[in-house]
Amino acid sequence: MKVKGIDVSSYQGTIDWGKVAAAGVQFAILKVIRKDLNPDKQFEANYTGCTEANIPVQGVYNYSYATTVEKAKTDAERVLEVLAGRKPMVWLDVEDNCQKGLGEVLINIINTYGEVIRGAGLEFGVYTGLAFYNSYIKPYADKLSHPFWIARYPVSGAMSIDSDPADDKRPEILHSLYGWQYTSKGSVPGISGDVDLNELYVAVETGNIMPEPETALHRVGEEITVSSYYASSTDPIEKAIIKNASGTIQRVKPGTYNPYCFGKNGVAVGWCNDGDIRSTGAAGQTESTEVYTAQSGDTLSGIAKRYSTTVAKLQQLNGIKNANLIYVGQKIKI
User: Fold this and answer.
1) 140-153 residues labelled b (16+ CB within 10 A) or e (exposed)
2) pLDDT > 90: what percent of the chain?
3) Rounded CA gap, 159 and 183, in Å?
4) Looking at the DSSP assignment, which residues form a beta bridge with residue 148?
5) C-alpha distances in angstroms, 72 versus 18, 33, 238, 296?
6) CA separation (Å) from 277 to 211, 219, 259?
7) Cβ atoms of 159 and 186 closer than 8 Å
8) Quick check: helix, strand or coil at residue 61?
9) What is the DSSP string of 7-33?
10) Number of H helices, E strands in the chain
11) What is the structure's pLDDT at 1?
12) Mean pLDDT for the stretch of residues 262-270
């Protein structure tokens, strides 16, 4: 399983998240606080932009300057304050020069920070570069049990979100490799200048995205044909656009007049309701007797193996177009 996304901060300035979503970015990780412990200047704008563009905020990261466990605890508590009840995964970024000579104190800093984050009900992981990991973390590997997001850049040139790094350059570490930051020179529509590109190897958290209601008659991934549709999910009936159109349901937004957003090749055509739909494709129409809820670390292939079925069948049952992209909390028919 491989899910591709970006991590950003105020360094990227104002981002057009609609263009980012259309480019195929499947998740984002946002810088949450600065050295002075104030929120990153673009954090709230980026969080809102991701949500409106239907891009999961997989996590937030805190570049750490902590050299004591007391400082680590204070920083973690501050991150929780800024998140204000939101529950993305929290990544502690350990790589600063001030942390290189700390020895086992660095391990205590990581564990203390993680205890605060997990104690608040959030998932926790560690970000660092491969060289830093090998020099300062690997000697104490048995004292850490957290997932790791590792930076290693196999090429120096620019890469697009569609470019794939060489698998044989993927970092090899003693811990679980949750994700790989494979370039700092990514090029993504909607972002001016360079941006970090990443691969994750597990189901993506979607706490900022409103989940699809289980009672919906139609599902994300289902092919539909409509006799009329709307420019907005909230448009009243008098604003209906009367003409035939077809596409794939990309989003379900409950509590609105027109809950289904449909489109083609990632480009939205319009919004519709149950009364507008005249025919449907096969995706998502087969009934199933069992439903599994995706957990952190799940892959579609792993779920298929567990239930003695195939990835192709699960995709058909659930209208899943991308076998490499499932979400924590997603209901999967077996």
Assistant:
1) eeeebebbbbbbbb
2) 59
3) 7
4) 126, 177
5) 35, 13, 57, 25
6) 21, 13, 12
7) yes
8) strand
9) EE-GGG-S--HHHHHHTT---EEEE-B
10) 7, 16
11) 61
12) 82
Distance (Å, rounded) from C-alpha 240 to C-alpha 231? 8
Question: Which residue in this structure is represented by tokens 């490499």?
Answer: 324
Q: Which residues contact 318 (CB under 8 A, 6 or more apart)?
A: 219, 221, 284, 332, 333
- Which value, to the nearest 10 degrees, does the dihedral of the CA atoms of residues 79, 85, 87, 88 take? -50
Short-list 60, 66, 61, CA closest to 109: 66
CB atoms inside a 10 Å sphere around CB 108: 16
Q: Kindly state the tokens that stand for 7.
A: 């991590």
CA diameter of the chain: 68
Q: How confident is the model at residue 211 (pLDDT cuts 50, 70, 90)?
A: low
Mean pLDDT of all residues in 136-164: 95
Question: 183: buried, middle or exposed (CB in 10 Å: 19+, 13-18, 0-12)?
Answer: buried
Is the pTM above the cut of 0.70? no
Element (H, E) at 204: none
Amino acid at 190: G
Residue whose tokens read 């919004």: 271
For residues 331 and 334, what is the distance between their CA atoms, to the nearest angstrom? 10
Residues 158/164/168/171 CA torsion (nearest 10 deg):
70
Report CA dihedral (60, 14, 25, 211) to the nearest 10 degrees: 60
Dist CA 152 CA 161 (whole Å): 16
76: helix, strand or coil: helix
Residue pair 261/220 in contact by the 8 Å Cβ criterion: no
Q: Which residues contact 101 (CB under 8 A, 6 or more apart)?
A: none
pLDDT tens for each residue of 156-191: 899 999 899 999 999 999 998 999 999 999 999 999
CB 228 within 8 A of CB 243: yes
